[in-house]
Amino acid sequence: MDLRQLRYFLALHEHRSFVRAADAMGITQPAFSRSIQGLEHELGCVLVDRGSKDLRPTPEGQVVLQHALALVRGASNLSHEITQMTKLDAGELRFGCGPALAARLVPDALLEFMQRYPRIRARFEVNNWENLSRSLGRDEIEFFIADIRHFEADPSVQTQALRPRPGLFFCRPGHPLLIKESLSTNDLFDYPLAATRIPMGARKALANLSGKTSFEPQLECEHFPMLEELVRRSDAIGVATHEAVSEPLRRGELVQLHLRNLPSNLDSLSARCGIVTRTGFRLSSAARAMIDLLTTLDGQQTETVAA
Predict the structure, then answer these.
(1) 3-state DSSP: the chain helix, strand, coil percent, rounded to 5?
(2) Could you count the other beta carbons within 10 Å of the beta carbon of residue 182?
(3) Which residues pair with 18 in a beta bridge?
């Protein structure tokens, strides 16, 4: 039994076809089948129900799947950590970020990182905090930057706070609401609201403002440029951080809505941003370097905003 056979078995479970799995692994189907048979012979049991259309794993196969995933991940993590333990001239940076921070902080940090370490391959995903948490748990990323309210009491992760990002409501120029001299939250909820995935605290605040027991936006999308375009071309009201829409606001492509009865201290509508890592997990040198850049640039941007 070797890691190659375990990788093949994982591929078979994913693709549910000997032909597709062999193609995905870059070998011929007969060679792939022999490898699976060899693994079964080594373990002394049948791992796959070949009589089922979707090639369901047998009970023994389920056990092997669990251990195979852990072993393959462990080997990958070992290789990754050794490669990147002390040097930054090779390897990979894997992280994630929420849509709000993809607007300015993360691109600025990533551009500087690429200039400093041109041989590091960077791979990152933009998603909501729930999906990023799943990616972290599956070892697909080493850390992520997002709203940290949901994670501050979780012992399995550690959080490092960044500066909060104030939230706002925005719309297109020419929106019917802009004709009014004074706007209230009652006016706001007469139109569809569009936002990325909103943390629970902010959803409760919006529910209170709308007079409802719960709140979900009519339009939800993690790809912020698409969300922004939907607001530009409809009467939908956008909900975002000021940082995410600062440039289109400055150019007059979007307009911030000012509501007379919106509490000035409504912190729950702000994004409480921070960096989330797994407790007890040793970060690669690339991840540590990127986190240092993020915190440094965040501090510089704080000074710029204050000035």
Answers:
(1) 45, 15, 35
(2) 9
(3) none
> Residue 74: how many CB atoms within 10 A of its CB?
12
Q: In this predicted structure, what is the pLDDT of residue 306?
A: 42
Tell me the per-residue pLDDT of 153-202, one tens digit each, with 9 for 90 and over: 899 999 999 988 888 899 999 999 999 888 887 888 889 999 888 777 77
List helix spans (H) across 211-306: 224-232, 242-250, 285-306
3-class secondary-structure state, position 220: strand
Could you give all domains of the chain from N- to C-terminal order, each with its CATH number?
3-84 (1.10.10.10), 92-164+272-306 (3.40.190.10), 167-269 (3.40.190.10)
State the CB neighbour count (10 A cutoff) for residue 205.
19
Gap between the Cα atoms of 307 and 278, Å rounded: 35
Q: How far apart are CA 130 and CA 147, in angstroms?
A: 10
Question: Cβ distance 246 to 168 under 8 Å?
Answer: no
Q: How far apart are CA 104 and CA 240, in angstroms?
A: 13
What integer pLDDT is reported at residue 267 of this predicted model? 57
Residue 236: per-residue pLDDT: 94
Please give the mean pLDDT across all residues of the chain: 86
pLDDT-based confidence at residue 277 (cuts at 50, 70, 90): very high
Handedness of CA 231, 235, 240, 246 (dihedral sign): positive
